[in-house]
Amino acid sequence: MELAGGRNSSDFYGLRLKPELFTILRHAGLDLLAYDGALCPEVALPLAEAALRIEADPALRSLFCLVVGCEDGTASEVTENLRQVAQKCAQRPAVTLRVRPLDDLPLSS
What does the domain layout of the chain look like in residue ranges? Predict the structure, then answer.
């Protein structure tokens, strides 16, 4: 997962995720690609809730580690990063979210 653009841009906040993470988020009840182009605050709560579900649900954590191929500590690090992204999104009321797979072409402003 990485932030793309958006750090110095005031019009969008870019988020690039491994395709496998999109799958995990869907299992946690969030189709993050559906929020591509939405205002950041619209995704803040659903993203934070999905991160909490991944951490709290042993089945989701197991699936996460199976699909992404990680240790339990990595799952916690990724969910913490998702919560931080949610918090940053909540603080950007007039900024658009751009979501792309990590292997996709770089985001342009």
Answer: 2-101
Q: What is the mean pLDDT of residues 12-23?
A: 88
Helices (H), the chain: 19-27, 40-56, 58-64, 72-90
* Closest alpha carbon to 13 in 50, 38, 45, 46: 38
- Would you state the structure tokens that stand for residue 27, as one six-digit string? 């299992």
The whole-model pTM stands at 0.79
4 with 105: CB under 8 angstroms? no
3 state SS of 24:
helix
pLDDT digits (tens, 9 = 90+) for 28-56: 999 999 999 999 999 999 999 999 998 88
| pLDDT at residue 64 tops 90 | no
Tell me the pairing of strands 12-17 and 2-4. Answer: antiparallel
Taking Cα atoms as reference points, which of 16, 18, 35 lies closest to residue 97?
Answer: 35
